[in-house]
Amino acid sequence: MTGREMFWTKLKRVIRTGFFNFxxxxxVSLASVLVMLVTLMTIxxxxxxGAVLDISLAELRDxxxxxVTFAPTAxxxxxxxxxxxxxxxxxxxxxxYVSREEALTAFKERHASDQAILAAxxxxxxxxxxxxxxxxxxxxxxxxxxxxxxxxxxxxSKKGVAIIDRINYFQNKTAIDRLTSIIESADRxxxxxxxxxxxxxxxxxxxxxxxxxxxxxxxxxxxxxxxxSTTYIQGPFVVVGIIYGxxxxxxxxxxxxxxTYWLGGATESFFTGFNIFSYYISNFIEIALIxxxxxxxxxxxxxxxxxxxxxxx
Amino acid sequence: MIFFDRVSKVYPDESVALDNVTFSIxxxxxxxxxGPSGAGKTTLxxxxxxxxxxxxxxxxxxxxxxxALDKREINNFRRRIGMVFQDFRLLPGxxxxxxxxxxxxxxxxxxEEIEQDVPHVLDLVDLSNKIWNFPRELSGGEKQRVAIAxxxxxxxxxxxxxxxxxxxxxVNTYDVVQILKKINDLGTIVILTTHNKGIIDSLGKRVIAMxxxxxxxxxxxxxxx
Lengths: 313, 225
Hints:
Chain A: It is found in: Cell membrane. Chain A: This is Cell division protein FtsX. Chain A: It is a multi-pass membrane protein. The complex is a heterodimer. By secondary structure, chain A is an alpha+beta fold. Chain A has two domains: 3-60 and 180-311, no CATH class; 72-162, Alpha-Beta Plaits, CATH 3.30.70. Chain A is 74% helix and 8% strand. Chain A has eleven helices and six strands. Chain B has one domain (2-219): Rossmann fold (3-Layer(aba) Sandwich), CATH 3.40.50. In chain B, helix 3 packs parallel to helix 5 and helix 4 crosses helix 5. The chains are: A alpha+beta, B alpha/beta. Chain A binds chain B through residues 1, 6, 9-10, 13, 20-21, 24-25, 216, 218-219, 222-230, 232, 313, and chain B through 49, 51, 71-72, 75-79, 83, 89-93, 102-103, 105-108, 110-111, 150.
């Protein structure tokens, strides 16, 4: 046989032996697949909870903004100038201009059922409301510098006359600060939990595979004594590890279907607009890749690491 | 062919398993190694198979120092030696056929050779009817015959039989010894360790007696004292 033919023959034998070993050790295989299933489900759930956390944090972030209310006397040109200078700040994501008229319409709509207020407005005769710039920063922690810019800069007054009536950041400061710190710690906690949970479940899977190889340690030494090479002994164990990973991966992906479907309604009413089932379906390829790759990697690596100890003869 | 050159083995707990052992084995020889438990017989075999390294001295096989070989060369060297153990050491997850085929696969033989040689060697040890059985379905004597078939199939230069009859009844013991004799008659070196006086006396071949790690007697056609 040429070297090339020998390689393919050996590969074929290693794969065939792996499948034989998997099917003949039914109980051990079943137990290992179940442990791997738990590991992969944990990894899957981690990616789901990551998505839920991201979405709810984004929603929270989106709720934070700063409103700059101008004096009714401020001219539209001045306001637009301030808008421009705000937009040029790197911290600022979006500035929306609400004119005096729009502010009045919105106010009337908001108080449509309150006759006394509407009557009072009519009594005034003119629009008492100032125009508003609604500012959204890229990050909640950057509102302070935006507010400082508005307060200190030349923006505040035009020709000695103050055109900004008030900036609601200073009223909402405590709430914004608290929310910012909650978001930051939730982010950190989520990351730490992910790492710890993933590490624990991977260790458990690794240990299970190590036990299955421990059972075969006498066999491995016999293989050594009849002159089998390291790769030839190791190969079938790695194949079995990969089969554990693939079978457990497929089971995980299938089990997630009814599970996410069942949880879908609950997540939709709790996190507005987020349905875990539709998230699973629309990100299926990505999630499937992560789960299958994790299964194959954990299975193969555990086998390689565990068997090394018994190959020293 | 095989030369033990002043070989000593001292374990980390200071116990001396082999003490300055020197002897050689020529092609076609049948050598029995006898001695009480702890005499150093098993250590001797372990050193020869490169499972362990000697503390002092060297072991040569065809002029090659076994312990100077790298991992790959050790694998090749082991394929020239057939091993038979007291506890059989068959692979429990493989059938009789696969146990023997595995040794051939490890030696890089083709599928055609395997399909041809495995039934043939099983015929030699009279086990053709058990070819698809698993080891757990065989008797002690049958297991040992599978082990001998496995040791034979790569046509090794040396067969090492470490107490091969220790777990067998007299009838199976007789069979195993007859098979080993037949293998030796065909030109293979056989190294046999045993406690069985009857076997040694009936063989009438070379006997090396060991005690406390030393060779105490080396007779060309010895008896068990």
